């Protein structure tokens, strides 16, 4: 085990991609589950707060310590097994997502979850129930977690497999490896029907493994993960279509999404539908000079091809033409190398926004909201007007097929930043009014706790906190993530 306490050595552990920063007394870097258990037992006995750190790619401050010590998972980075026959993998939490996907694909297997930041640790994606472009077809990380090994906040160990422990109504019982029992009640509250990563996943008769997925490290330290794999699709249609009108782009996405999800006999069946607004295209033109000058929006889509390539391409071209897509200027990938370039294009804007905010010494102000499908277009244009009326520069990109957008405001100074924060709150409130969520994929962390209160009242949040207290009565693990410490009473 490595222990760091020199201020110069621990600086990299005190921030994340949101530019949120914190402090701690020391950083512990264990190399095994037993060492993690040893650290946690010691801290629990001495009531020292622990913050679990992933790769720092998060956008909510979840891995940033506010006191105590950091438990960095960086050394638990092995792919233990990829089983081609039964289509599963066993990995340690600090395996980098892109490296794992590459290894799986080398065996003709496929792991669908694809957050924008592919240098994230897999453990972090489980902790936040991360999603991404392919969630439109395949669902979020939760759909692929088959088993977890967890060190609890008092050092006990839990090994849980999907289908093994189901809640009896709202009553939950989990046995630990030493034979002791954790018993608690699941609160009853309505979760949005949209893609959602805000608060604990709770419902009657649920599989209890799902409680830990998206719990943001508040219930235990994940030490090993079993993941479901599927067969690798061999042939993909991947395109970036440009539009002169944002309205046309949104109409194209709306119809493509309807055909993909609600028309069983449709040839159109996208696995991802992503929007880029005119300001995003302007932001990217310096690196991508072939973006058409008259383009005011773009849509990236992908679909897997079976034996119907000609019919499939014809169907998409008809849809593109119907919605005034710029057919001649659009991009179509002819091989996997070009598909990878499209991925780089999709991911480039997030990196540029992070750099923009970092250069100004400001925390990122980017929405993670999603609303029901039928409300999306109206919500989108209302949101754009709200930000424009506030006099703020912005870019919009994201998973519009899932009615989920990342609108990043680009303040230049502290005054504009404060205005952006107020505007952000109003956007979140509007999403909740439409029965949406304040966080579709990044979680709540420390930066979005106030917005969780827009979704759930104090009584509901206190009930969530009771779950944490059942696992962590000494209040030491990832305190401040999801809800403030004042709820842990």
Give the integer mean of the pLDDT values.
95
The percent range for strand residues is 15-25%
Q: How far is the N terminus from the C terminus?
A: 34 Å
Indicate the percent of residues in helices. 25-40%
User: Which residues form runs of ≥5 with pLDDT under 50?
Assistant: none
Write down the overall geometry.
Answer: globular
Annotation, overall tally of beta strands: 21
| Main sheet overview | 8 strands, antiparallel
Strand-pairing-aware structural class: alpha+beta
The value of Rg in angstroms is: 22 Å
Number of helices: 14
Structural summary, described in words:
With 489 residues, the chain is α+β, with helices and mostly antiparallel strands. The protein has helices spanning 7-10, 33-46, 97-105, 122-128, 135-138, 209-212, 246-262, 278-284, 309-322, 336-359, 376-389, 414-433, 449-455, 458-471; strands at 2-4, 26-29, 50-53, 69-72, 79-83, 88-91, 109-110, 145-151, 157-161, 171-175, 181-185, 221-228, 230-231, 236-243, 272-277, 297-304, 331-332, 365-366, 369-370, 394-398, 404-409. It is built from 14 helices and 21 strands. The strands form five sheets. Strands 14, 15, 16, 17, 18, 19, 20 and 21 form an eight-stranded antiparallel β-sheet that branches. It has a five-stranded antiparallel β-sheet with strand order 5-6-12-8-9. A four-stranded mixed β-sheet has the order 1-2-4-3. A hairpin with a 5-residue loop joins strand 8 and strand 9 (157-161).
